[in-house]
Amino acid sequence: MTRKVKIGKITIGGGEKIAVQSMTNIKTSDIDATVAQLAALEKAGCDIARCSVPDNASAEALREIVASTSMPIVADIHFDYRLAVKAADAGAAKIRINPGNIGDESKVEYLAKYLKEREIPVRIGVNGGSLDKKYKNIPLAEAMCESALEHVSLLEKHGFYDIVISVKSSDVVNTVKAYRLLASKCDYPLHVGVTEAGIYEKGLIKSAIGIGSLLCDGIGDTVRVSLTDDPVKEVYAAKEILKAVNRYDGAYAEVVSCPTCARTCIDVQGIATQVEEYARKLDKSVKIAVMGCVVNGIGESEGCDVGVAGGKDKSVIFREGKIIATVPNSEILNALIKEIDRI
Ligand code: SF4
Q1: I want to staple 289 with a disulfide (CB 3.0 to 4.6 A). Which of 155, 187, 304, 312 is the partner?
Q2: Which residue's CA is the nearest one to ligand 1's atom 8?
Q3: Model's pTM, two decimal places?
Q4: How far apart are CA 67 and CA 76, in angstroms?
Q5: In which domain, by residue range, is 300 found?
Q6: CB crowding 275-298: b at 16 or more within 10 Å, else e
Q7: How many domains does the chain have?
Q8: Which residues in 85-150 belong to E strands, given as ranges?
Q9: Does the structure show a pLDDT above 80 at 197?
Q10: Closest CA to 272 of 295, 254, 249, 298
Q11: From atom 5 of ligand 1, which residue's Cα is the shortest distance away?
């Protein structure tokens, strides 16, 4: 079991709910745009959001940004410990910084003391693409793990233990290996993700394999899906990954639909898409099936609470495998939604 770390109002680690994270992808100094994007992330179900703080203007903007949202905001800092101090003053709930990159020991000591007094945790985020040269002869997974633990020891030396770690690479296999290794060597909570995963479809697959594999191993206390796309999609993707590995905390509706074949009688794709949109708003546990034919549809929907199986002009609505109504194909969506609402 990992230790618990508090990030503002959210606690991660120690068996707490796995928190979904995302990151704004616009200039943090553009307060209005950042506030709007954070609102969209929060509405989508994001628990913790990160903003880059590359300069003073961003650090200063953070105060208003933090005040605008109820999500804990993580300030992403590279190299400059003074920006970390400014972000902490502005209300950041966590600082992402690698202490080995901020200069001499006195700076690490100062920052560790400053953040400890304010109970602000640090995420050490090792990225496989920017490892120190001294690791170049070590296999990537081992190198990422070793680098992370070296950053950790710099903070521990100054009595700082409020640490979250990530070891991300764009290579899924090495990312998984690195996290497994890290989980066997420390009990700090792990922020899991595959970095620079790519544009939507590719990023989804890489993230689902990487994050999903780790979650199946019981590794991961908070997740971030990285997509070259709207960050709101990262939140939806993260939630789907959690659901797929039975780690989603809370009730939700699941839609299953058949792949369609020569027996298909109805617009399975169109209906399933609309049902999915409806189901996303539900916070009750219900499994819904959209199946293309009555021949196999009902039998193959075992375990579903409610569903439709298509027929030539009329289709059947069923509950727990038993037909309860026959409706014209133009009425499928309405009839199905009515039944879903009854559950
Ligand atoms: S449920 Fe029917 S239509 Fe869908 S794939 Fe199976 S056999 Fe084909």
Answers
A1: 304
A2: 261
A3: 0.91
A4: 18
A5: 253-342
A6: beebbeebeeebbbbbbbbbeebb
A7: 2
A8: 94-96, 122-127
A9: no
A10: 254
A11: 260
**What is the C-alpha to C-alpha distance for residues 216 and 79, in angstroms, rounded to an integer?**
34
Q: Which atom of ligand 1 is nearest to the CA of 259?
A: 5
141/287 same-domain check = no
pLDDT at 336 over 90: yes
For residue 310, the domain's CATH number is 3.30.413.10
Closest CA to 65 of 44, 43, 37, 84: 37
Question: If you take atom 6 of ligand 1, which residue's CA is the nearest one?
Answer: 296
Q: Which two tokens stand for residue 134?
A: 């001294």
List the strands of the sheet with 314-319, edge to edge: 253-257, 286-291, 306-309, 314-319, 322-328
- Among candidate residues 22, 18, 49, 6, the one with its CA nearest the CA of residue 219: 18
Q: What is the pLDDT of residues 138-168, one digit of tens each?
A: 999 999 999 999 999 999 999 999 999 999 9
Claim to verify: residue 116 and residue 260 sit in the same structural domain = no
The mean predicted confidence, pLDDT, of the chain is 96
Tell which atom from ligand 1 comes closest to the C-alpha of 292: 3
Distance of CA 149 to the CA centre of its chain: 23
